Amino acid sequence: MMAAIDIFGVFVNIVAPLLVTAVFLLYLIARIRNKNKQSGLRLPPGSFGWPILGETLEFLQSGWDGEPGRFLKQRMEKHQNPPVFKTSLTGEPMAVLSGPAAHKFLFGNENKLVQVWWPPSAKKLLGNGLSNSVGEEAKHTRKMLSYFLTPDALMRLYIKTVDQVTQHHIAIHWQGKEEVKTFPVIKLYTFELACRLFMSLEDPRHIEKLAALFNVFLKGVISIPLNFPGTRFYRAIRATGAVRKELMVILKDRRLALEQKTASPSQDLLSHLLVSPDDNGKFMSESEIINNILLLLFAGHDTSSVAITLVMKVLGELPQVYQKVLREQTEIASSKGAEGFLQWEDIQKMKYSWDVVCEVMRLWPPIMGAFREALVDINYAGYDIPKGWKLYWTPASTHTDPSFFRDAMNFDPSRFEGAGPTPFSYVPFGGGPRMCLGKEYARVEILVFLHNVVNKFRWNLLVPDEKIIYDPMPTPVEGLPICLHPHNP
Question: Where would I find the H helices in 222-368?
Fold first, then answer.
């Protein structure tokens, strides 16, 4: 025991300071070399902040404070609103681009001047799959996954199932309740729906177990990657490992069921990925299949959850908007009859309801932003962005900019009528080759839920001025508790 204490004392008093000093010296050497290399360049204005950490803490803090646009706004104002500024996030020199021109530039130069990049925490947790693939590999993977996420697939395979799962969820978790904490219940709904559609998983206990682990994983995706007890990243690493083990069991059971012909090759995404090669005749490895399903659960579950939750918030706050949504959805329901399920053409009729959803995502984008990496030296707006630098764009740069949205903080769904907003000013799903793969899936999921919930209830908010923070996605700090009022039969 004494020997162990002595070794620990040596580490704390001698080894640890030496390691910190060595890391700091290496950082300074790299920075000096980089500065010398870039001395002839016209870099964007800005600051790299603290050694190693850069301005990461300020960046994260703006989201935790419920002001995701603050980090960008403060730096742009400090430097007289340049189209790009420099900073350092997650240990990387980074150019932050803003405005429709920036969005157009990044989306239009995917795999030419820039490629997708994720912070170290996300790379480690998501593993090899579509999230980290580029070029032809990304194109093949995206095509494989899109087989079950296109409008055609949703039309052929999913609409009725989505409606059935939604009705069952509302019957179990909403009907007969006076109060509901909206956010956690909707997170369970979107996770249950994804498990059902992607893997045909129906056991509620199994789904709840996976959902609990998945929520720990989500907290670590955008975090400081310190892997020791007590940190978010440490907990996320362990939760993700447990999720992967569960998914591997499901995958192996499905492979056996396919061999025994007790499962269908086309019943869900998991079966499709197991039996279908890409255009080059190559099959995905089991680990790639698991990583891609993990990515789709991440992308299609949490973003939809926050969008639905914040739609519920707005409809609870604005009775006139609720009444117009209810009128539209009641007309659709009356045309279906008592036992009729929604069809693709019904989704197309939900024009005002989708305008409401779009306005919600304008004010509270489901993601704070996304990252790219410079493949070559780039000159943008007269500034040099060296090869290897990371680039960051955020919807917050335009979604509430009065230059593109009059009375930008006012809730107005009519902005999306006709031609809609200025091109590249409204980008909740990104754009270009990396546009959100599940955009149509999210639209169906959100609108089917909205159809069912407004036709059964009205509600009022129990915490009217509840704060919304970004952690990393917009989250009501109290979970958006509401009081339900069923419609008279």
Answer: 232-259, 269-275, 286-317, 319-334, 344-348, 351-363
Q: Please count the residues of the chain.
A: 489
* 422, HSE (Cβ side, Cα atoms, 13 Å): 15
Report helix, strand or coil for 229. coil
Enclosing H/E stretch for 393: strand 390-393
Q: Buried b / exposed e across 135-153, counting CB within 10 Å, b at 16+?
A: eeebebbbebbeebbeeeb
State CA 435 to chain mean position distance: 12
CB 232, CB 220: distance < 8 Å: yes
| pLDDT tens by residue, the chain, 489 residues | 434 344 434 434 454 444 445 455 555 545 544 554 555 789 999 999 988 889 988 988 888 888 888 888 899 888 888 899 999 988 899 999 999 999 999 999 998 999 989 888 888 888 776 666 666 676 777 777 777 777 777 777 788 889 999 999 999 999 999 999 999 999 999 999 989 988 998 888 898 888 888 888 888 877 778 888 888 889 989 998 999 999 999 999 999 999 999 999 888 889 988 988 877 788 888 988 898 888 888 776 778 999 999 999 999 999 999 999 999 999 999 987 666 889 889 999 999 999 999 999 999 988 888 899 999 999 999 999 999 999 999 888 899 999 999 999 999 999 999 888 999 999 998 888 878 778 888 899 999 999 999 999 999 999 999 999 887 788 899 999 999 999 976
Q: 3-state class of 215 per DSSP?
A: helix
Rg (CA), the chain: 24
